Structures
1.
Amino acid sequence: MTEEQSKYIIEVINKHGAKTHELINILNKIQNKYGYISSEAQSLIAEHTNTNKSQIYGMISFYPHLRLSPKPKTEIKVCCSSVCKNRGASKLTNQINNLINNYEKSSEIEIKKTGCVGLCGLAPVVFINDEMIDNADISKIKKILSKEHF
């Protein structure tokens, strides 16, 4: 972590106050600036808010919008609501994982399961970055991923 990053984090903590109920605001500000909350940042936050690092880590891993590592080039979100599961989301998730695992730059791609996205009539639904794929199947996923990765 650079000195500039440390100064910014301490500045954010001082602005919000070193109170436990302000941790989520502190974490959001830091993530908005850097895209994720590094291990070093977690240690600094813990030190300056009189909490322990495991509590900070627990909050980051609990809230799905917070990240422990930089955002990958491609983020795939698969809706795993009951309707999407009934229409093949679980099988599709496995197929996507197999596809990604066979790609040499798999670290550039992250797959996440999400709750209902409110598009049940179009199930299963997958988002690749901000592009929605309705009635998703592996051939549609391959076609979109091939533009950037394969």
2.
Amino acid sequence: MSGSATATELADRYQAAVDAVTAGIAGIPDDQWTTTVSDETRPIGVVARHIAATQQGIGGLLRQVTENGQPGPSFTEEMIDDNNARQVGEFAGVGKAETLAVLAEATQGFDAYIRGLSDEQLALNAGTFAGNELSVAQVVDFVLTHHFLGHLASINETLSA
């Protein structure tokens, strides 16, 4: 299947974000892995692993939505906050190598998947996130691309402080 021009643009931005985040995580000094991110309440390693977990979950969700055409679920602000809080304990002992491996596996070929989407698939309702109904395209752009880069910026700001 051949995707749209919009899909190609989204895929390019997404892959650039993945490349930047992967390089950023790889460059985190081991002795800084447990440092708390300055504008969050989580250690750098937990935030890095959160990025990989988000890709796993959201990537699977988007594939379901585009395959069956049904809207995705609703995620309230409370659900998102609870998930982030749960991850602090769940990912506390996860190291950089494991985080990079999970991220690589979760992102492998996802840019090609995005490139193959039609404009109709990009417009599908991917779900409601903190009260905002988002299309597949918006989830790729905001939840994956900008969300990833926002966390990377927070990590980098912490490391440079």
3.
Amino acid sequence: MAEGKATVDANGGLNVRQKASKDSKKLGTLSNGTTVDYYSDNSGWLQIKYSGKTGYIMKSYTHTTGGATGAQGSSKGDTNVKFDVDKAVEYNKKRNYSKDLWKQIQSKAGATADGAPGKETAKAIAQWQGSHGLTADGMCGAGTLQAMGLSSSTATESSSKKEDGKTSSGSANVSIDVSSAVEFNNSLNYTSDTWKKIQAKVSVHADGDPGPNTANAIAIWQNKNGLKADGKCGDKTLAKMGIKAKTKTSSNPSSYSTTDVPKGNITAHFTWDQFKCKGGEAVPSNLRDGTRRLCQNLEVVREELGGKPIKIVCGYRSKAYNEKLREKDPVGVAKHSKHMDGIAADIRIEGVKVEKIYNTIYQLGKSGKIKKGGLGKYVSSNFVHYDVRGGSSWTTW
């Protein structure tokens, strides 16, 4: 039996996971404004049914009714709703709704219809939410708009905005692959503090979680600042923001930052030359973020094995070179090799057996110190394959 209903409040949609974890396999995506039944509410995750299967969605990107949270402060006519007014005002201002839409919201909620989402408006919204069975938080997201019978179609930013006396063009109507952007951003392994800095820069709620709203906000910021608007916060976007990233893959993340490394290096101990294709091609610029993530994880492996140098037997492969290898070994060389994506390396360490390298990488992934992905053991050729394709478990061979 369902505990209550949850309405998605995420402009780019909300991922449905197989398990209650951001690292779990994605089953699909719920569109913004979609309402579903949920069957349990644990540790920030709601259990739902999706395409006949059990799935999980992050509660922070929904408005719920029913259950313990939905019932709190939701009685009809309740005038003593407790919530964080300042947080609600900040959230509402960042929705970038048109003034006319805010007047409609205010009229519905019984506030002064002046088109300005201040404290009076937040309090009126919370009262309205409480009396209509919604979570009374004063935040007017997609769920509340839907319950009010209003449309957020006018909730876009102006196409021209004054910044430091200059006019810059940009629109919130940027079309991106949100799921791809969210997956990419999560794979970066930035610390929560880094994400909070990024979120503050793009004017979205700074919770340290790179979800759909963050990806959309990044895309809008990128568009305004002359970058490719894909919602992915890689090196170019970070540099433009003036933010120095720290990652979660090392006991000393700052030593593997994207800016504090020797010239020509990817990280402290790996160079771009090491990852060149055997055919002579350098790692393409659009793949370099992935190669950098791989090397940040390899730095942890290197440290765990006593700081011994890691030899890159094979790094990036061009499509042409991969096909050339497949002609010689069509079974052993994958058609869609992760080497072609720049996120794989075949490695060797002098004086360390293949089994030890393999087991060390496996345990580091299991303990969460490095990213899980593909892991292969090639004893006769004396190397280990490691890639950062992602996933909640290892793909081993």
4.
Amino acid sequence: MDFPGLDLSNFDFSGLTFSGCDFHHTALHNVKFRKAFLEECNFRDAKINNADFSDAKMKKVDLRKTELMESSFYHTDLTEAKLIGAFMMDAKFTNAIMKKADLRGADMKGTSFFGADLTEANLDKAKIKNTDFKNAKLLKVIGDKPS
């Protein structure tokens, strides 16, 4: 299934499977994807505000240049996710699994990675002002390692 350019705001997709689906340029405001299976989906250039992706499986998802405002990724598996140039203002990645995630040039102002596993993540040129990395696993991070 493909949804490019659609407005899917206010829907509850919790527990559903969308493996490999195309959501690029899609509006996803106030949506729920709790425990959804979204591996290898394309969310490139999507507008995602106040969304809940808690416990979702999002391995190898494409979130390049995506707007992720005030969205929650609690305990979400984002292994090898592409977040290059993403805008993540006030997003929450609490206890997320983000091994080998590519966050090059991402704007993470006010975002929390509390307890997240960012092992081998690429943070090169990421904007990390006011970003919370407390208790995050930052082994072998590429780029400037947050202090």
